[in-house]
Amino acid sequence: MDTDKGIFIAFEGIDGSGKSTQIRLLAERMRDEGIRCHTTMEPTDSPIGSLIHQIMTGRIKTDARVLSPLFVADRLDHLLNDVDGILHKIDEGVTVITDRYYFSSYAYQGVDMPMDQVISANRPSSDLLRPTVTLFIDIPPDVAIERITKNRSRKELFEKRSRLVQVRDKYLEAFDRLKDVENVIVIDGNRNVQTVADGIWDAVRKYTSPRQG
Fold first, then answer.
1. Is-cis flag, bond preceding 43, omega within 30?
2. Which residues, 6+ apart, have CB-to-CB distance to 172 below 8 Å?
3. Which of 54, 95, 104, 171 is close enough to 37 for a disulfide, judged by CB 3.0 to 4.6 Å?
4. 97: helix, coil or strand?
5. Long-range contacts of range 193-197, CB-CB < 8 Å, 24 or more positions apart?
6. CA angle, 23 as apex, 175 and 109 as ends, to 5°?
7. Is the CA virtual torsion 134, 139, 143, 145 positive or negative?
8. Parallel, antiparallel, or unpaired for β 8-12 and 95-99?
9. pTM for this prediction
10. What are the beta bridge partners of residue 136?
11. Which helix (H) or strand (E) holds 201?
């Protein structure tokens, strides 16, 4: 690994897994350690990402075969944007932490279409940049639905128990398929927030260096 570049950490998990909280805690910890870091998410807030959000919240109706390439395009722009794109940040020596990356497409879209097709469509992104480490926060779908119901006023497209069961299975299938080329660490998310955060730090600190600061 080029020590002058930042590392790339991708968080994955079914809806309600607690990714947002853990990303915030990890970023705070990294900054305390003198590591420059940038947090981001998919879908992005770009025009393409905004269109995806409208579909996910039900304001626009479309087919899964339309949604899938929108994610591909949003992800490539997320990587290649020369203002605040992931590759640009990493080249500057900044560690990038993203809430979702291509494994989300493999899992969520792999329910509706062949996973091979989704993986192939996202190959331009995986060829450009694979995460230094992918952290999958694993929680039972029943716990996920309980959290979503408690914390959100409206559900998104995929936030149903039966769907989340399928998505979790697809995540595990994708990890198994790509175990020879991807560095995936499964984190037990069914614990208190600080215990999960400590486990995540233990998993990633060997990849980090204050020299980026």
1. yes
2. none
3. 95
4. strand
5. 193/18, 193/21, 193/22, 193/25, 196/18, 196/22, 196/137, 197/22, 197/25, 197/26, 197/29
6. 40
7. positive
8. parallel
9. 0.92
10. 12, 186
11. helix 193-204
Q: DSSP assignment, residue 155?
A: -
The span from the CA of 52 to the CA of 45, in Å, is 9
CA-CA distance, 83 to 89, in Å (whole number)?
A: 9
| Rg, Å, the chain Cα set | 17
DSSP code at position 209: -
C-alpha distances in angstroms, 169 versus 42, 121, 159?
21, 20, 15
Distance CA 131, CA 97 (A): 9
CA atoms within 13 A on the CB side of 120: 5
Reference 175, options 124, 121, 110; nearest CA is: 110
Sequence letter at residue 185:
I
| pLDDT tens across the length of the chain (213 residues) | 456 899 999 999 999 999 999 999 999 999 999 999 999 999 999 999 999 999 988 899 998 889 999 999 999 999 999 988 999 999 999 999 999 999 999 999 999 999 999 999 999 999 999 999 999 999 999 998 888 887 665 555 456 788 999 999 999 999 999 999 999 999 999 999 999 999 999 999 999 865 443
For residue 188, the tally of other CB atoms under 10 A from its CB is: 11
